[in-house]
Amino acid sequence: MAKKVIVDQKSDIIESLSEFSRFKNIDRAALMKVLEEIFRAMIRKKYGSDENFNIIVNVEKGDLEAFRERKIVSDLNVVDESRQIPLSEALKLDKDYKIGEEVAEKINFLEFGRRHISSAKQLLSQKISEMEKLLVLNYYKELIGEIIVGEVYQVWRNEILVKHEDNELYLPKSEQIPKDKFKKGEMVRALVLDAYLKNGSPRIILSRTSPIFLERLFEKEVPEILDGTVAIRKIVREPGERAKVAVESFDDRVDPVGACVGIRGTRIHGIMKELRNESIDVIHYTNIPQLYIQRALSPAKISNIEINEKKKAAIVYVKQDQISLAIGKGGQNVKLASKLTGYDIDVYTETVSEEVEDDVELDEFKDEIQESIIEELKKIGCDTARSVLQLSIEEIEKRTNLNQETIQNVLRILKQELED
Questions:
Q1: E strands along 126-226, which residues?
Q2: Are 220 and 260 in contact (CB under 8 A)?
Q3: Measured between alpha carbons, how far apart are the two ends of the chain, in Å?
Q4: CA of 234: how far to CAs of 103, 267, 297, 311, 398, in Å?
Q5: Higher-confidence residue: 200 or 47?
Q6: Measuring CA to CA, which residue among 4, 23, 137, 124 is closest to residue 70?
Q7: Class of the 143-207 domain?
Q8: Where does the pLDDT of residue 107 fall: very low under 50, low under 70, confident under 90, or very high at 90 and above?
């Protein structure tokens, strides 16, 4: 059957309501959906149902059209006035209407009255506010794990309020470096740690103590990390005091520690300054437990290590003058080394019976071992005679370009030197 449309007076209610879309960063499609929901609610209040109403929203033009569709029936067969229109009434609209056809009547929203319009505006304002909060929340959820720079807006006892792109972010006391002292108006760099709703409003949490914050700082300062040549394997921190960073290189020509430190420490000094002069030990990662633990306890020099793989524990022996370096201030060094390596480390001073002879740097063997062989051993983290002797021939052969005969000769020379 043909469907004819009778156009009523144009409503301008949508023009006043759509003003929200001009000033808010709201997706047009989402706004249209909200507007349709609001007007359907108005229709249900007035007509009892919105099932036979068709609503068209044009936010860009600031226009809305709503049509009620009813089927023409004879005057004596009207059962449901919301869905049916008597023929006599339809003929008043258009003398050509016939029974069985449908009439689409445009709804004039001005007839809803001020109370309904005011209620709609209020509901729209509420919906827009909720949508804006979700937009902010989702925006910062995408930034979790990334660094932002904001302005200190308020300094409170337990947290700092930071302004970022006109949004309020929070830096709790627990996520501040102990030496942090910020004033209103200062710029602060921090990691987006979490984003969630609290009492219906987005709460964005920042952190300067997270290991990820330090990782991102390294990425910004060290191009080799950003391009994937050097990788950070693990970071452990005592914020503001000390950190240990295990790194490895995927290119034999690139020294991972040197890349992170930079020429004369230029790269790492900038990071340390941002972290309130936090001491940072950059360690060459290795999957050899003895060597990894030895490096993790830097700057202390280790005499001997006993490892219990089953218990993931290690007993480390050092000379008397190295004990304070190995343990560190308040036990920081050994505690961070344990976290970095995954081994429960105990440090002991050597006794006379336990004392192990001094180690010898590989460079001391240049008269007996070719320099190219020494450099090959250094590439796998072996800088001393004992670090080489801790490895099996098979392990050295696997990790270097040296053949078994060469390796056997090197081990013989090293053993002879240490036994003399």
A1: 147-155, 159-164, 167-172, 187-198, 201-207
A2: no
A3: 110
A4: 71, 19, 15, 21, 24
A5: 200
A6: 4
A7: mainly beta
A8: confident
3-state secondary structure (DSSP) of residue 414: helix
Pairing of strands 201-207, 167-172: parallel
* Closest of 299, 302, 369 to residue 329, by C-alpha: 299
> Could you give the residue range(s) of every CATH 3.30.300.20 domain in the chain?
215-280, 286-356
Tell me the CATH architecture of domain 362-419: Orthogonal Bundle (1.10)
Say which residue, 299 or 218, is predicted with more confidence. 218
Contact by Cβ (8 Å): 271, 214: yes
The class level of CATH for 215-280 reads: alpha beta
- Whether the pTM exceeds 0.85: the reply is no
> Where are the alpha helices (H) located in 143-235, listed in sequence order?
211-221, 223-226
Any idea which residue has 């972290």 for tokens? 275
Burial 127-162 (b: 16+ CB within 10 A, else e): bbeebeeebbbeebeeeeeebbebebeeeeeebbbb
CATH 2.40.50.140 boundaries in the chain: 143-207
* CATH superfamily ID and name for 286-356: K homology (KH) domain (3.30.300.20)
Identify each DSSP E strand in 15-101 by its residue range. 53-58, 63-73, 84-86
Dump pLDDT digits (tens) for 112-144: 767 777 777 777 778 878 888 988 999 999 999
Which residues are registered as beta bridge partners of 152?
162
Where does 3-131 sit in CATH, by number? 3.30.1480
Of 348, 351, 402, 357, the C-alpha closest to 376 is: 402
- As a whole number of Å, the CA-based R_g of the chain is 37
pLDDT tens per residue, range 236-283: 999 999 999 999 999 989 999 999 999 989 999 999 999 999 999 999
